[in-house]
Amino acid sequence: QAKRAGGDRIEIFRANMRNERSDRLVLESDLRRSLERNEMKVLFQPIVRLEDRTVAGFEALLRWDHPKLGRIPPATFIPAAEENGFIVNLGVFVLERAAIELAAWQRSLDVEPPIFASVNVSSRQLLRHDLLHDVKTVLARSGVLPGSLKLELTESLVMENPEYAAQMLARIHDLGAGLSLDDFGTGYSALSYLQRFPFDTIKIDQSFVRQIATGQTAILRSIVRMAQELGLAIIAEGAETEADAQALAELGCDYAQGFAFGEPMSMLQARQLVGAAPEAA
Ligand code: C2E
Ligand code: MG
Ligand code: MG
Ligand code: MG
């Protein structure tokens, strides 16, 4: 019927559709070639111990430096990569880079507990059984200390298929990887339920940290208390100011991550920050 209606309007519509589709195709083939073209960068954001403000570890965060479009944030390309399956390649890439870097830090720093690195895992990666093999290989090859390479998973990801997730996470945990519950408070937020998963750390979502400025710390306080009772380490995300950092320390958070302590930075900057010897890359 659309065709019969005729007129210029429809031609324009079709032309737009064609453009949109080809844009998507270009981006998709660009994405698939991004790794071989060396366009993907892993940045590291410090996670700081609140009691003494030392760097306890880093979160690895992906960036895509597209030759024409410039730097593309993960929120833009991760969903596309999830959809077309390329997330699996990206996931292995980030895991390897983070583990190699972590091992280098650990070789030149003799601190106890050892410095850690954490890597985000998305749905398609967890559902894919090979994740176990990838984690095992990376742990063995890199030689990182046990428990110091951590995977971050969100509640909603885990709750997509709790039975399967529980099995996978138990096996990943047995391999010697740490497990962090990311963006806590944005999903189902049933810590008691999530207790049956082998998480060692929860990361409180930055939306709760934002509430510090308005004095609404009730939820934050109760999340911290529950996590403490469950024996989980607590990282607050999105600490942007010194006031945030102080309030989080007083509430009993162990660690904080946010612009107050450092933005996601290059591998070299991360090495400088922790005082690790520069090694040939
Ligand atoms: P996330 O895992 O919750 O990572 C924290 C995000 O908060 C990062 O955004 C970080 O740059 C940002 N952030 C850190 N401190 C502050 C702060 O003080 N204030 C504010 N406003 N934001 C802060 P980024 O790097 O854009 O990453 C966004 C999301 O993309 C991540 O959220 C994660 O879910 C996903 N992502 C990033 N890298 C990867 C990856 O390698 N694999 C997968 N599967 N997902 C990734
Ligand atoms: Mg994360
Ligand atoms: Mg997070
Ligand atoms: Mg997030």
TrEMBL record:
<feature type="domain" description="EAL">
    <location>
        <begin position="24"/>
        <end position="278"/>
    </location>
</feature>
<protein>
    <recommendedName>
        <fullName>Diguanylate cyclase</fullName>
    </recommendedName>
</protein>
